[in-house]
Design brief:
6 strands; 4-stranded antiparallel sheet
């Protein structure tokens, strides 16, 4: 194998204030579920079980399509948010590269509009769904479980906020020089670790897609063809773009990996590779498999 690089280079706390922003995404959705203490007690009693060993959670609106649409939409929005960003802190903050900021902002703005539309569609049928639930829940129905539409609306929220990446070592506090130096050193180490974590996440995501692709290409002419899903192929192309946009520190290893993949999949003077071409052209398949093997072997293994 032709290993390009073997380890993640040491990060010397580069300034990335102009390369990325911190983004925080949060969304809250009414679950539509509630524990029924009376029914729980009946279940434990009926089964001769100890009190508190069984819980009955009822779906207040049964299988409400409008509520499920909101819940599924938020889950998908959160997945895309993670796909387009990089980890930064354990508190849920993520990094969005400056090169991707406007695309990310446009995507999340569109998501917020659709979220509000779906929530309103649910609120419009809420009172009718309560009436329907009398039949669905039978003796489990309880009027006290249901709040007003106005109060229910406050249980839904969609928020995206941005903030600059803090400078490493900017301590404007009144303390002794020795304490300030210690605090600065500790934050410097934390700052370097967070940058390395963000870059490592991109490497790990790249590895995941490349290993899937390699497995799909791991057969020769005359052998049984393995399935090559478009989602796997498109994921590799997306990661080529991410390797460029997310290279916040000018990391030479990340750029070398990106360049090797870019040359193979979108090389100047070459036809862009497609899943169909890989399936039909055994020479192209073997060549691409070899390039993917080289890149996988050069990717650092990072535990995040």
């Amino acid at each position: 194998m032709n290993n390009m690089l073997t380890a993640v280079p040491n990060v010397s706390a580069p300034s990335i204030q102009s390369s990325a922003m911190i983004v925080e995404f949060s969304a809250s959705v009414w679950t539509g579920r509630k524990k029924d203490k009376s029914a729980s007690a009946q279940v434990t009693l009926h089964n001769n079980a100890r009190s508190g060993t069984a819980n009955v959670s009822k779906k207040l609106l049964g299988d409400c399509a409008e509520l499920r649409a909101v819940q599924d939409f938020v889950a998908n929005s959160r997945n895309i948010h993670y796909t387009l960003t990089m980890p930064w802190s354990d508190l849920g903050q993520r990094l969005v590269p400056t090169a991707m900021f406007f695309d990310y902002q446009a995507q999340m703005t569109a998501f917020e509009r659709e979220f509000n539309r779906l929530v309103q569609a649910f609120l419009d049928v809420y009172d009718w769904e309560i009436i329907q639930s009398r039949t669905k829940l039978g003796d489990l129905f309880n009027d006290a479980d249901y709040v007003s539409v106005h109060e229910l609306a406050r249980k839904f929220a969609f928020s995206v906020t941005y903030s600059p990446v803090p400078e490493a070592g900017d301590f404007r506090v009144d303390m002794g020089n020795e304490q300030a130096a210690l605090l600065k050193t500790q934050y410097q180490e934390h700052y370097e670790a967070q940058i390395a974590k963000a870059m490592g996440d991109v490497f790990n995501r790249t590895r995941k897609y490349l290993e899937r692709l390699h497995n799909s290409l791991d057969y020769n002419k005359g052998e049984k063809r393995k399935p090559l899903h478009n989602t796997t192929f498109d994921g590799v192309l997306d990661m080529i773009d991410m390797l460029k946009a997310c290279n916040l520190t000018g990391d030479t290893q990340m750029e070398a990996i990106r360049t090797k993949l870019e040359d193979q999949f979108r090389g100047v003077g070459k036809l862009p590779i497609s899943p169909e071409a890989l399936k039909e052209d055994s020479h192209l398949r073997a060549e691409t498999r070899s390039v993917v093997e080289d890149v996988i072997s050069s990717l650092p293994t990072i535990d995040l």
